[in-house]
């Protein structure tokens, strides 16, 4: 059994993380740039129900992405929302795996962990593929999609495929790292998926801050301000009356 | 490679955009979109035009976002094609942007509340409107209205004397109705508790709403007044995204309240007027006010609850539904109060779906009613509202917004729904319990009740006379002193009938009639000619030919002066297919 770590894998799994510093630096500048913009203020007394405030509205707004019942768009497209959840869980797991795999692969080397991760990555990759197809075939999506949008979803999908392959290498990598005893059930380390995965991850560290994928940097700000405004004006938290009937309309 | 030159207007738009985008909320809404498309089928324009992706909110937003990316976004400035960045260079491109931000979006904010990223499209759509407005690119109707609001002080160009005459006229109507000369519409009463401010549409086209509110205030026994200046609570600053205009309009009203020393400003039923006066105005004007402000909806609710006014809701026995104004529901959180009032003043309330903050736009928002060039588009998108209305099975739709009244009225007409549109103040006044309500007046208003008549005549006395006849028969009457203003009024109010004089300066009634009949939107608009024409006076004008021989349909009616009121009303009732004795 081949349980050695080649210099290339070692470089990919341990040295490329230095690019995180680059990402952090760009994000620091980006957040500073956002904060240089002046926030608008509401001078007027609050409107609407007294149980809505700017603060409550902001909190509601920040978390309503986790409340699919709160928006007509997510109520109407339940499957689309489920896909969104799966895709983002896949991406988050892969980001976490890129760190854990490098330094403590033993933590994800159990067969249950590997299987769970592979299911998550496979599901997320399928969603990514569906999103890619939707983006290039649905007229409205074609109209609004930029090369960055198409490239981002395509690359993430490829990355998730390699995440799937990479997860399967966790036991062998843990053995190679001396964190796990070798056994007959653990195959040889396949270097290609590991190297490709890390190089795509590294590319992301440089590309993401300049692409639409960095939307998570804007998210807390944009949702906070929308929520604060609509909370002050009594709209958020939104009241739900007959939401099912609302969702059914025109569906 | 030669540098592409920019037109002066495009240059100004770019420079102004850079300034506007220093606002954090605007910048974030432009930067945060991930093009997920979740907003697509939440917009009434998209639902009514499923085969045209250009109506998708994200696609419309991208017309503005491209500009932001080209000049402000980091990646867009370095690699524009990669993120779809594109600047503007020509006036034609600005016209194209105008077509989107004015003609394909009412700023209803429905896409904002369904956006997972919290992108507030209404905010930067308003910004884009302001950019175009600042370089003089805007729909013609918007130009007129904004100009009137700057110069005359109200968006419909109602002159001070006409406004005061209307108040006096409504005061007399109320006095006659109740046989009580003590009923007043107080003007500029210093130290009043309440100052009531209205939409100029009420003074010009719907004075009945003023009378209804005055009736309620009178029988509530409150100390109230209306200002002679600063009475317009609407604000085109909101529709053109211009804080300068918005601030000027708001300040005018706030100054009136300060001058009169009132405790509270009560704002009549108008979505954007309420939002502008109550919410945005102080921000635009950069001033704090020393009085309370509330919608008349809240006032009515409080008075109904504490017994200040009493009503008999069986007087409004038809099933009613409620349409949420976008500005009320999605920008000011006013969703429950109107429903509470409605349930207290009407016998049967039927909910509309979707409702409250999720309701669809009436299609008349964002100043759309003043943009006649986009009327066909607007009416097509009204299909969604028509479906909502039809599903309720109600006979009357109630709304707390004058724009919505007009938008819904058009929708009902276009889709032949056979419904009435009214407002809470009208229903409340109708249900109001007051001593000795005379039956005679109620009967006399039935024949043309709910109909809008536009009188176009250059002679003030004749205009007044005709207005009186139509109003006494229940119609809501507007007037215009010449054909040009008449055409504008037709676009603004979409009357049920036009009462048209022939001989007028500048442009004859004959020419206006031809224009109407050639216009796809107005070719079926009923017109009754009311003229004192005699062939010996004007031998050169071929009225006989106009009536009988031209290759256009003859007018629906012809009344010669001197006017016989009975004959006039008989003819009009025949044209509108209503019973003269009242139905």
Bulk shape of chain B: globular
The ordered H/E elements of chain A are HHHHHHHHHHHH
* Terminus-to-terminus distance of chain B: 75 Å
Task: Specify the oligomeric state.
Answer: heterodimer
Choose one word for the global shape of chain A: elongated
Helix % of chain B is: 40-55%
Kindly name the structural category of chain B.
Answer: alpha/beta
Given as residue ranges, the uncertain stretches of chain A (5+ residues, pLDDT < 50) are none
Distance between the termini of chain A: 57 Å
Domains of chain B (count): 4
The structural class of chain A is mainly alpha
Largest sheet of chain A, in brief, is: none
- Low-confidence spans of chain B: pLDDT under 50, at least 5 residues? 437-445
CATH architecture descriptor of the largest domain in chain B: 3-Layer(aba) Sandwich
CATH homolog superfamily of the domain at 7-23 and 69-214 in chain A: Transmembrane di-heme cytochromes, Chain C
Give a brief description.
The complex is a heterodimer of chains A (251) and B (583). With 251 residues, chain A is mainly alpha-helical.
Account of the 3D structure:
The complex is a heterodimer of chains A (251) and B (583). In chain A, 68% of the residues lie in helices and 0% in strands. With 251 residues, chain A is an all-alpha fold. Chain A has a domain at 7-23 and 69-214: Transmembrane di-heme cytochromes, Chain C (Fumarate Reductase Cytochrome B subunit), CATH 1.20.950. The radius of gyration of chain A is 22 Å and the shape is elongated. The mean pLDDT of chain A is 92. Chain B has four domains: 8-138, Fumarate Reductase Iron-sulfur Protein, Chain B, domain 2, CATH 1.10.1060; 151-306, Rossmann fold (3-Layer(aba) Sandwich), CATH 3.40.50; 313-431, Rossmann fold; 443-576, Response regulator (Rossmann fold), CATH 3.40.50.2300. In chain B, strand 7 (396-399), helix 22 and strand 8 form a beta-alpha-beta unit. In chain B, helix 17 (296-306) crosses helix 19. The model of chain B is unreliable at 437-445 (pLDDT under 50). At the A-B interface, helix 4, helix 7, helix 8, helix 11 and helix 12 of A face helix 2, helix 4, helix 5, helix 6 and helix 8 of B.
């Amino acid at each position: 059994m081949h349980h050695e770590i080649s210099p290339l894998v070692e470089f990919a799994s341990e040295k490329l993380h230095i690019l995180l510093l680059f990402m952090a630096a760009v994000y620091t500048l980006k957040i500073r740039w956002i904060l240089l913009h002046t926030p608008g203020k509401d001078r007027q007394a609050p409107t609407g129900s007294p149980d809505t405030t700017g603060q409550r509205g902001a909190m509601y707004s920040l978390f309503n992405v986790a409340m699919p019942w709160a928006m007509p768009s997510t109520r109407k497209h339940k499957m689309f929302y489920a896909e969104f959840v799966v895709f983002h869980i896949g991406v988050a797991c892969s980001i976490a795996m890129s760190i854990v795999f490098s330094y403590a692969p033993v933590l994800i080397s159990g067969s249950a962990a590997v299987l769970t991760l592979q299911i998550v990555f496979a599901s997320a990759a399928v969603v990514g593929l569906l999103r890619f197809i939707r983006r290039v075939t649905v007229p409205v999506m074609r109209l609004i999609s930029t090369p960055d949008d198409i490239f981002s979803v395509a690359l993430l999908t490829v990355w998730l495929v390699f995440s799937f392959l990479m997860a399967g290498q966790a036991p062998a990598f843990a053995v190679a790292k001396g964190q796990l005893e070798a056994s007959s059930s653990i195959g040889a380390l396949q270097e290609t998926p590991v190297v490709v995965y890390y190089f795509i991850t590294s590319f992301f560290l440089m590309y993401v801050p300049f692409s639409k994928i960095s939307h998570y940097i804007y998210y807390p700000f944009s949702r906070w301000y929308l929520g604060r405004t609509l909370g002050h004006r009594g709209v958020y938290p939104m009241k739900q009356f007959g939401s099912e009937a609302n969702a059914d309309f025109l569906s | 490679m030669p540098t592409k030159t920019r037109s002066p207007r495009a240059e100004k738009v770019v420079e102004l955009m850079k300034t506007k985008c220093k606002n954090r909320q605007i910048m974030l809404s432009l930067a945060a979109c991930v093009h997920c498309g979740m907003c697509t089928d939440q917009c009434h324009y998209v639902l009514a035009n499923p085969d045209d992706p250009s109506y998708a909110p994200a696609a419309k937003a991208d017309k503005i976002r491209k500009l932001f990316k080209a000049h402000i976004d980091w990646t867009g400035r370095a690699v524009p094609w990669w993120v779809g960045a594109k600047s503007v260079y020509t006036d034609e491109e600005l016209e194209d942007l105008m077509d989107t931000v004015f003609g394909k979006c009412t700023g209803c904010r429905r896409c904002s509340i369904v956006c997972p990223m919290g992108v507030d499209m209404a905010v930067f759509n308003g910004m884009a409107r302001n950019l175009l407005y600042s370089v003089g690119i805007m729909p013609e109707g918007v130009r007129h209205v904004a100009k009137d609001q700057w110069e005359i002080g109200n968006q419909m160009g109602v002159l001070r004397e006409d406004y005061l005459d209307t108040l006096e006229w409504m005061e007399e109507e109320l006095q006659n109705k109740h046989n009580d000369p003590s009923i007043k519409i107080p003007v500029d009463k210093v130290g009043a508790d309440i100052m009531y401010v209205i939409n100029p549409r009420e003074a010009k086209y719907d004075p009945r709403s003023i009378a209804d509110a005055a009736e309620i205030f009178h029988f509530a026994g409150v100390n109230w007044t209306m200002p002679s200046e600063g009475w317009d609570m609407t604000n085109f600053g909101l529709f053109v995204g211009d804080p300068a205009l918005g601030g000027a309009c708001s300040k005018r009203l706030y100054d009136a309240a300060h001058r009169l020393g009132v405790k509270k400003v009560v704002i009549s039923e108008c979505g954007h007027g309420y939002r502008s006066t109550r919410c945005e105005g102080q921000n635009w004007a950069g001033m704090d006010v020393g009085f309370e402000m509330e919608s008349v909806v809240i006032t009515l609710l409080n008075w109904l609850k504490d017994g200040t006014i009493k009503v008999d809701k069986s007087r409004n026995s038809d099933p009613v539904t409620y349409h949420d104004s976008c500005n009320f529901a999605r920008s000011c959180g006013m969703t429950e109060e109107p429903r509470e009032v409605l349930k207290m003043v009407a016998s049967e309330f039927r909910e509309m779906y979707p409702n409250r903050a999720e309701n669809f736009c009436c299609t008349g928002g964002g100043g759309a009613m003043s943009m006649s060039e986009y009327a066909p588009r607007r009416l097509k998108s009204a299909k969604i509202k028509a479906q909502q209305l039809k599903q309720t099975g109600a006979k009357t739709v109630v709304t707390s917004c004058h724009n919505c009244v007009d938008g819904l009225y058009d929708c009902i007409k276009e889709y032949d729904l056979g419904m009435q549109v009214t407002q809470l103040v009208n229903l409340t006044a109708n249900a109001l319990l007051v001593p000795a309500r005379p039956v005679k007046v109620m009967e006399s208003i039935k024949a043309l009740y709910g109909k809008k008549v536009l009188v176009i005549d250059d002679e003030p006395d004749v205009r007044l006379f005709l207005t009186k006849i139509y109003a006494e028969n229940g119609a809501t009457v507007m007037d215009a002193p010449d054909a040009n203003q008449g055409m504008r009024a037709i676009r603004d109010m979409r009357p049920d009938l036009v009462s048209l004089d022939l001989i007028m300066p500048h442009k004859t009634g004959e020419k206006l009639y031809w224009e109407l009949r050639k216009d796809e939107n107005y070719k079926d608009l009923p017109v009754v000619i009311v003229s004192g024409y005699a062939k010996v006076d004007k031998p050169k004008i071929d009225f006989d030919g106009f009536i009988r021989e031209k290759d256009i349909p003859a007018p629906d009616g012809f009344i010669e002066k001197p006017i016989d009121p009975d004959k006039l009303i008989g003819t009009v009732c025949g044209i509108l297919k209503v019973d003269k004795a009242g139905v």
